[in-house]
Design brief:
Length: 79
Amino acid sequence: MNKHIEIVKKWIADKNSVDDKELIANRQSAYDSDAAATYAYRMQIKAAFHAADAAAAASAVDADDTQAVYWVKKYESLV
């Protein structure tokens, strides 16, 4: 289980369950994890980062979650 993906999945299921500040913090945390990750784990963290980034961006502009859903599925295909 990846905490970054879990937050994004929670947001996808209910947009009001995660606020913008939490999504932005999640994006930064995923980015920080990627910087410290080993190569083997990096692809999973990158997918988590992209999902977190897409969710934060979508929430900030009240857009749809298409990109976040894509990256969650990408992550799940890697694990």
